[in-house]
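Complex record, two chains
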Amino acid sequence: MGKIIAIMSGKGGVGKTTLTAYVGAALNRRGYRVLITDADFGMRDLDLVLGKENDIFFDAVDIWKDRCNKDNAMVPLREGFDFLPATQSRRWEDVGRKGYGKLIKKIAKDYDYVIIDAPAGIGRGNEAIFRVAEQLLLVAEPMWVSLRAVQRVMQLCHEERLFNYGLVLNNVGRSEAAVPVEEALQSLQVENLATIWPHSANILNWSQAGVLHEECDEAIETMMEPLLTYLESDTAWEETDILERWHSLFDVQNVDEEEAITETDTDTDTDESVEVAMTPENKTETIELVTETQANEVEQQNEEPPKKTSFGSLLKRRFASFWNRGGRFR
Amino acid sequence: MGKIIAIMSGKGGVGKTTLTAYVGAALNRRGYRVLITDADFGMRDLDLVLGKENDIFFDAVDIWKDRCNKDNAMVPLREGFDFLPATQSRRWEDVGRKGYGKLIKKIAKDYDYVIIDAPAGIGRGNEAIFRVAEQLLLVAEPMWVSLRAVQRVMQLCHEERLFNYGLVLNNVGRSEAAVPVEEALQSLQVENLATIWPHSANILNWSQAGVLHEECDEAIETMMEPLLTYLESDTAWEETDILERWHSLFDVQNVDEEEAITETDTDTDTDESVEVAMTPENKTETIELVTETQANEVEQQNEEPPKKTSFGSLLKRRFASFWNRGGRFR
């Protein structure tokens, strides 16, 4: 039976669906038979990202309710790479959960990997997925709201005794307001870092156009390697090795910008420019400035003497209570 | 009794929480008593955006289960502006829904406006919220996945016979891959456009730092006006008037960039630069180009003759089946 992997994040809009599509494609390029499936019943979007929204006649719930056979609902993407859509007409609240596990396990017999694009939140759907997934990828952006959502999911992993989970730090470099990579990782204290993914303007464009590209950005491909190793072997790379790869990729481009451009020009033979957002190096100072200004303004409104708040202490304050409770939410 | 408004989007990560905070603050500045409340049980984030994560000792569920009185759970933000947090330890699946309606109605007696930050998806929580909200703000980004999620919520509005809803087109100008404003609006065919909101790097920074600013970006304030009118009067501005305001704001800045900068310099007296992302005017051409390239590449892989796909026809194809079914999902 194929390995069942779920991609979860707690918070929506951090890139679960895109990751599902591109990780599936990458595994398929390595020669595996792969199924990607949307489990966001009632609010699906993987079909739009794949450009398959008009090719759906049956869905996962139709198989499970015996309204069609397995093959009728599968949307083929490539040789050995299929897509099973979620229903739009029903929600997780309207269907049983046990049936889902049976369905996925039955289907997994035909594949090497089944990747489930989980819904946001921690409701009924994710409960069902927890019970069938052998491995989880937790996706977080380097923003506080997303980091905390992943902490919440990690807590559930422990409650559900599913310890085989790894983190994907996603969309790094998209926003200047982001928490620096090292601090984001530190705040989560996660055992397995699956990979760090750069924000890619190309992928956003392709998702909008409904095209799953054969090969994506060079930077994405480079950072995909540790992730694939984790999925294939259940063993994550050393965090320092992933960080080193990350920094070698982006620090070089930042310092020798002209050289990097020349390199890009010579080794691409398509019209697509490899346009990947740079990671903001050492943004702490900028954010510190903003925080202090705001903090001072707020203090002034309260007519108390101004007090300095560094970003470091804000970080500690923000997550101290969480870790003081042994990583449990009240 | 105060008016109960819910902010919903279907898809997560499109700005519900930020909008809740800033709309609440704006109504409060107009002299109203306002409560903002997080209804994302188990996955709250409004407290982080407000910087109140360490000020929470009780929450909405504690009031409802009589574990504290109303005032213990309220976090005061300003005179006449309070915040009621969601629980983190329970999910909507673990609590009854009727109690929530009673709670919110009881609390609404003390306020002019109660604004509910709804969870993503269309599960139990949103079911409860549909039953208590008098007006909905539907938040969509100009991206296909978000636009379709809002269509799904609109369908639910009709099923639940809640017709008093308006659209906020949010984060406009954040991504070059975005659908142009006019096309996004056309694809939704929504009766009430509440407003168009620009993406603001400032607000993202402030959210990260956990500071709710007294007054936000000038552009945000300008585009807040039609939204506040809609909330106060239940009557939306004419769509053309909102579009005109939007274009006058951003087209002028695009054309006379130098002038705009001079203006900004003279009428701000703080250290904050008013840094608002520009709306990409007429991006159709760029996107068309990408789409055609992708489409051609895909065709070539399939060894079929290349075929031109314009973005316009993609739009029509993409949503034709939806509207052909009378705006209903199968």
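Note: Chain A has two domains: 3-241+249-267, 284-324.
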